Amino acid sequence: MALKKNRFQPEDIKIVAIHIPEFIVEQREYYENPSKLSGYDIEMEHETAYNDEHYAARFRLFFNIRGKNNNNEPAGVSAKILLEFHFKLDNGEKYFIRENGNTKINLEMAANLLSVAYATARGIILQLTLPSALGGVILPVMDAAKWIKENQTKN
User: Fold this and answer.
1) Residue 56 covered by a domain
2) Looking at residue 130, which CATH number applies to its domain?
3) N or C, where is the chain less crowded by C-beta within 10 Å?
């Protein structure tokens, strides 16, 4: 029995640019009364844009991170981070769906683009937050397809 060839090919994704338009750490309150951090509250939002003419995509990931103390209360340290990823899609015609005058990208490709952006963001955020009172935030692993379904992207 022959295996069905998957339409999605990971090597079709090319990262062409990564920007950090915003990175703000508020930590003065923490240093006035330092305590060991016991964890973080992390909120993430994303915004997407697709260009079916040039087979390109842009993902913006917005993060709000707040350190917590041992009592699970705010510890006086927080970060606001915006990361922007630009992608080029080889063989892009396979991934864009045109229906009723609207253009969408298929869920598998959208989920993989978000996975690449988020995984890259994990490393960037760890490095950005290491020298701060946050001490190096490691974002949790996520299910990108589930995230997209629960938080409809803006096209």
Assistant:
1) yes
2) 3.10.420.10
3) N
- CA 79/CA 26 separation, integer angstroms: 6
CB-count burial class (<10 Å; 0-12, 13-18, 19+) for 2: exposed
Place of tokens 């991170």: 65
Could you give the CA distance from residue 46 to residue 113 in angstroms, rounded to a whole number? 12
Domains in the chain, number = 1
Please report which residue ranges of 18-152 form alpha helices under DSSP H: 28-32, 107-129, 144-150
Three-state SS for 92?
Answer: helix
Indicate the pairing of strand 13-26 with strand 56-68.
Answer: unpaired
Phi, psi of 115 (to 5 degrees): -60, -45
User: pTM for this structure?
Assistant: 0.88
- With respect to residue 85, please indicate whether it lies within any of the assigned structural domains: yes
pLDDT digits (tens, 9 = 90+) for 103-123: 788 888 999 999 999 999 999
Pairwise CA distance, residues 48 & 58, whole Å? 6
Q: Tokens 């981070």: give the residue.
A: 81
3-class DSSP state of 11: helix
- Domain containing 133: what range? 10-150
